[in-house]
Structure formats: C-alpha cells, structure tokens
Amino acid sequence: MTPQSQSQSADVDAARLLLARLGLSPEDLLAAAQDRPPVPTFDEYIPVVSKAVSEGTRRVYGSYWNRVREQWGSRRIDEPTPSEIKHLAEYIKTHLVQRRNGRGGRCAVEHLIGALRCLYRHAVDDGLIHKDDNPAAKVAKPRRLPSTRRAVADTRLAEINHVAATTGNDPALDTLLLRLHTETACRRGGALALRPRDLDPTQCLILLREKGETQRWQPISPTLMTALQQHAEGRYASREGQLLRYVNGQPITTRRYDHLWTRIGNHLPWVATQQISMHWLRHTTLTWVERNFGYAIARAFAGHTDHGGDAGTTATYVRASVQEVATALAALTGEPHPLR
C-alpha cells in the first residue's frame, strides 16, 4: 500500500468514526442532500421574497433587487461569494444617478447589502442554504454618516409656510401638510396612511401608522382636527380610504411632497441649497419638545419604540404618557387640548 493510499484510508476511518459518534451513516448524508430543495436562481427567488415582505420593505429594496437580477439573474443564489457582493456594491456605487443630496453612494451600498441580507435570510428559513453559507452576512455595511438635518429656525419656518400658502395649484393641501407634519412630527408614510377613521375628534387624537408596522395615537390641535375633517369631507375621502387627496379626489403620493419642496426651493434658494424636506420639520418639532419638556416626552412625541438604538433600558421606566405629549403640543400650538 502506497503512502498516499494509507493516508486516504486513515481519512476514511476517521470519517466513519466521526459519523458513528454522531449516530449517522453515509446513507443519512445522501438522504439529507436529496431532501434539500433545489437552489433557485435570483430571477426565480427574488419575486418569492418580494411577495413575502411588507410593502415598506418592498419599496426600499425593490430597486436593488432589480439591479441584482440585472447582474446575476440567471445565477443560483448560492453561487455569489462575499467578494462578488463587494464588487457589485462598488459597481452600483459608481453607476448611481448623482443627486444634490447624495453622499457618495454610501446609502445605495447600505441598501444593497440590506436587500441581499433580507433575501438570504428568507433562503435560510426556506432551507435553501445553511445560515453559515450566507455571503451577505459576511459583508459589512458602510458606516452611516451623521445626518445633516437640523431644526429650522422660526423665521425660516414662517417663510416656508408663506410660500406654500401663496403659490402652487393647491395651497390648502400644502399648508395642511406642513401643519400636520409640524404638529405631529410624523413621517411621510404616517401622513399618507392616515384615514378618516383614524381621527378621534372628541379627544383630538389621530392614529399614525408608520414604519416597522408601528401605531400610536398622536395628539393634534382642535384647529388641525377641524381642517383634517373638512379636507376629508370636501375631497370625498371614504372612511376606510386615504384621507389626504387632491382637489379631484385622487389620493396624493410622495410626488406631492417632492413637488412642494421643489417649488418652495425655487422661491427660497436656501431651501434648495440645503435640501430642506419634510423630515426637517420632524427635527424642528422634536428639538423644541426635547428642549422644553425633556427627552422622555420627545421620544414619545416621535413615536420611537423601546427596541433598538442606544436609549437603554431606562427608557422603559421613563416612558411619557399621551397626556404629557398633549401638554407639550398645547404649548407648541398655543391651543388647549382635551387631554391636557
């Protein structure tokens, strides 16, 4: 027997010993391999994952899954390596549509890796790959840069509201949007998901449904409540349908926000230069609440949960009530609130 064959024989004996200790046989390994479903291609599997995720996740990751299909559509999902994912990230980073508020493609790379991690998590759950074979988990996301958003000064906020109220084809809608976001510090998704049935005029509360499938009752002023009710009635919003609508009764989309801030930027150059958006109003309101009423109430006003982030377990014990949020709102708007 040659030295090579002796070595192979020793390896075989060691493998048999290991299998015996595990209570397995070679036939068990062959059966397990046959039981695993065939690994699909990206073209086959991405539509499956897209149907399984929430609408918000689909909206964020959909364009990146499309880019993956363009590059790897015919490949099996277990073929790409971490290095290939890095190469794809660099390709997308260098082939971006350059925007004025872009940050060098870091956000695109972050979303691409997030989209692939989401896809491979489903593949692990479906038994298509082993969790240790997930290539996207081995690729680090780029470090997120600090946000450039900040609170808008009162005088600047007055200029924004003046332009919205005196220009455009629907000043009533635009001023209502600005007031809604200023009073509630809600996100765009929360405003667009608002329905007439989500209004509680007796207690001046609205139900906000935002990202992460979170829900919260948010106090608003009596003036804003009246405006929302009149808007819904005047624009024929059904009780279960979207509340915010155009004059013709069609529901608005994110396009209205884009057009609104583009128009304001045309009249106020500093708005265009700094890329002011509706999310800046969220920063403005929450900064004011935190400075005047403290962190706990600002956290509740923002609708932040007790999970994730760096708030720590103390946030569980200092959680603010809706009555405290209403008190802060009353001070912000100068109007009494039923829950105060």
UniProtKB/TrEMBL annotation:
Keywords: DNA recombination, DNA-binding
A Pfam family of this chain: Phage_integrase
Tyr recombinase domain sequence ranges: 149-330
GO molecular function terms attached to this record: DNA binding
InterPro entries assigned: DNA_brk_join_enz, Integrase-like_cat_sf, Integrase_catalytic, Integrase_recombinase_N, Tyrosine_recombinase_XerCD
An example Gene Ontology biological process: DNA integration
Family listed: Belongs to the 'phage' integrase family.
Family matches, as PANTHER family: PHAGE INTEGRASE-RELATED, PROPHAGE INTEGRASE INTD-RELATED
Name recorded for this polypeptide: Tyrosine-type recombinase/integrase
Organism: Solihabitans fulvus
